[in-house]
Amino acid sequence: MIKTLKAFFDFCDKTESKKLKTAMILGVFKALFSGMKIGAIAVIVQGFLDKNMTMQNIWMALGIMLVSLAGQFFISLKTTMLQCEAGYRTCANKRIEIAEHLRYVPMGFFNQNSLGNITNVTTNTMEGLADIATRVVMITTQGMLTTAVIILFIFAFDVRIAFIALAGILVYMICYSLMQQFTKGVAPFKHKADENVVAMVIEFVQGIVEVKNYNMIEKSDKRLQDAITNKRLGDTKLEFAVVPIVTIQNVVTKVTSALMCLASLKFYFAGTMTLFNCIMMLIASFMVYESLDMMSSFGALMRNINISITKANEILNIESMDIDGADMTPASYDIELKNVEFAYENKKIIDGVSLKIPQKTTAAIVGPSGGGKSTLCNLMARFWDVDGGEVLLGGKNVKDYSFDSLMKNFSFVFQSVYLFEDTIANNIRFGEPEASMDRVIEAAKQARCHDFIMELPDGYETIIGEGGASLSGGEKQRISIARAIMKDSPIIILDEATANVDPENEAELTAAIEALTREKTIIMIAHRLKTVQHADQIFVINDGRIAQQGTHEQLVAVDGIYKNFIDSRKEAVSWKVAKS
Ligand code: ADP
Questions:
Q1: What are phi and psi of 37, to 5 degrees?
Q2: How much is the pTM?
Q3: pLDDT on residue 196
Q4: E strands of 479-529, at which residues?
Q5: Among 110, 111, 349, which is best to mutate for testing ligand 1, by the most ligand atoms less than 8 A from CB?
Q6: Which residues, other chains included, contact 509 with Cβ-Cβ below 8 Å and sequence gap of 6+?
Q7: How far is ligand 1, taken at its centre, from the CA of residue 565, in Å?
Q8: CATH code for the structural domain at 2-316
Q9: CATH code for the domain defined by 336-409+492-500+529-575
């Protein structure tokens, strides 16, 4: 338990942990104020025993009681506020820290961790830490403190009874530690089940079109139902592991209280305890375990705190890709790959690729689907780290740049565009939130989106759905180009950008791309012959290697994948179907 409490305080940042510690210190005073009740009772009992109960006694007892209640009330108010503030601030700060950190973790992390896992940590887990963990920690620490104060009172009256009370606490703590053992195996199961429900719901909602399309409602629904059933199982398993122990703990505290009463009476009748002390001990025996009983019911959640902290720290401890990078501007925007090797987990994708793309030239990367074109582009912008060889920008290894100063130089235009649930203007100024409306409109005009935006009900202030659901594919793509125009980076990577666009949209899109790429270093994963043939260099990538390279004229003049492609598909639409 101490370990968990320490882990929790370490997890909160310094300011918030200070607030929690202040709340704990105030908890000591609260316990003392609570203990004052015994003093008030003592005054009354003494008055009765001395048969000398005066109004003065009654006022004194009432006064002590009032001070005790007022003290507890004000301290509770303060500690609850401190605890809420610390909990919610810690949660907010950690969420921001996680979001910020995720920008710098290698993409491999997203490969190995589902969206459900990441979402669960940043939502449920953090919520649990903010809300439940702070309460559990405070109730536990205050429970222990209050019990300790009352035991000190008992010691002041009768050491023998104090030892019985301590023995009860010892057995209680053994049960507590047993509870932690019993929940050890169940808590991770529950956590995994929580994670799965989130993952399944996300998948179900995201894939709802496919689910309907293939009439898979029942099957998909079954996976979701299984996840929900597992969650129920996780929750009940945890409760079932805990309930018997909590019951035993309650029995232990009640039996110890009864033993304290019996012993007090026995000592009184044996003449070794005064009547006053005996009455005081009888009263104390009912008070001593009150706070511990409350603490028991939160025991299982202690284990959850541990797991939650571990899960959040797992993300925060992933080594950032940015550790050695410096903020710098490249000397030029030439890109060079030297003998680059790369594998996703164990599957080798890029196998000794070397190439040079001088600044302000256009390189087309072509080849059969699955050959490694996108992977190669991702390596250039260091979305992944190479396993061998090096990637240079302006003559310097991309690893020497800080992540932000590297990313500044690249803009990606993907075939599948992600737009955020926000206004069109904010989607365009995504990379530069402070940009003026004039600049947004200028970028939109260059990207050929101004006209269709103006036809929308609220123009630039129209909110688009998550993922850009309310716009056509071509429109979404042009907005993403406006976003890239706004970023104005010197290197543009176009990944299959016009692959699925209808002819009507194509002219607009081509004009938008033309505006974006003017005077830039362009790397395009090419799909249409008419864009490829004007490139300064063409790299044909097959099975992770450069199969051919040259200009269109040079490549059509020799036998090879490129020529085969041209010959077999004069009217080719896409390289994606051209595995040769
Ligand atoms: P291309 O762009 O030429 O179609 P890709 O670079 O997208 O090829 O993919 C090359 C290979 O790498 C494919 O076999 C693909 O399945 C695999 N691959 C692509 N992205 C990932 C990823 N994130 N994790 C694991 N494998 C991947």
A1: -55, -40
A2: 0.69
A3: 85
A4: 491-495, 521-525
A5: 349
A6: 448, 474, 477, 478, 481, 497, 498, 501
A7: 21
A8: 1.20.1560.10
A9: 3.40.50.300
